[in-house]
Amino acid sequence: MAAAAALAAAEPPPAMPQAAGAGGPAARRDFYWLRSFLAGGIAGCCAKTTVAPLDRVKVLLQAHNHHYKHLGVFSTLRAVPQKEGYLGLYKGNGAMMIRIFPYGAIQFMAFEHYKTLITTKLGVSGHVHRLMAGSMAGMTAVICTYPLDMVRVRLAFQVKGEHTYTGIIHAFKTIYAKEGGFLGFYRGLMPTILGMAPYAGVSFFTFGTLKSVGLSHAPTLLGRPSSDNPNVLVLKTHINLLCGGVAGAIAQTISYPFDVTRRRMQLGTVLPEFEKCLGRAECLFRTMNCLHSPKRFFEYFSLHCILKEKDKAQNVGLKGKNTETKKSLLMKSGR
Questions:
Q1: Rounded to 10 degrees, what is the CA torsion of 66, 70, 76, 78?
Q2: Among residues 30, 92, 85, which one has the least CA distance to residue 60?
Q3: pLDDT tens, 220-277?
Q4: Rounded to whole angstroms, how far apart are CA atoms 76 and 89?
Q5: CA neighbours within 13 Å on the CB side: how many for 61?
Q6: Does the pTM of the predicted model rise above 0.90?
Q7: Among the listed residues 295, 310, 286, 216, the one whose alpha carbon sits nearest the alpha carbon of residue 256
Q8: d(C-alpha 318, C-alpha 77), whole Å
Q9: What whole-number distance in Å separates Cα of residue 333 and Cα of residue 257?
Q10: For residues 180 and 133, what is the distance between their CA atoms, to the nearest angstrom?
């Protein structure tokens, strides 16, 4: 997610058109970001709900739930409704919906703060400071909303008839009471943070490289004039999505072991082999042993990529489309 924030911030937002009406530029700008935040949150809720069945299957298979560990992705998608009903595919989605808005708000506010701080204190500007600010903002948002992610995973891992938690509030109370208080909500946080560094760096570098090579070798086919400056070429929307998808897939290949380790640490107390995940590095290697070989780490990698590329499209690809549509949208709103 930090990489998505960094990539989405790679280009500054388009200049806002001046329009007659009440309110100065600052008021109009605040109103614009409020609407962008609400629209992004609603879009995120719709997107997360759409892929919620795949997300639950990923959790069940990554942590080897004993009811489904012998099945594949599509077999599990068929088995879950048979065992738990169709709503079983959406276990944990409520906590995800609650997490989306605070995550987006924290990420946006932190990005603006870090961008200003890096520029004024370190004197760094351009793409580098946006990458740094985006990565730091993503990490901040993850840390602040991590308890909700922990609860979501615990609820998603439960199987009908074997419920440890009856709902979101009960999960919060139980984890707090039985797993060391507040720190119990942060099991697996370090693999998450460690996985962000290679993911952010590789995805940003790959996306930038693909963009530069594409515009230099096939500017007419892949590029279009920028709405802000017709003399500057930017990628077409569908090419932007494609480049983001390729960059995300390559970055996920590098960071995927951290994602599996995080899930197994989050579920440490409910897994039969929880005593094996005593520390971060130990959990990483012991999880590989539990999966019989490092190759098994990537058993469900394609499913993971599908879920991540949905985020990539939302955070990166739509940025290019917004460049063309923001002005008309704002004018329709009476600005």
A1: -110
A2: 92
A3: 888 888 877 788 888 888 888 888 888 888 888 888 888 888 888 888 777 765 545 5
A4: 10
A5: 25
A6: no
A7: 295
A8: 29
A9: 45
A10: 32
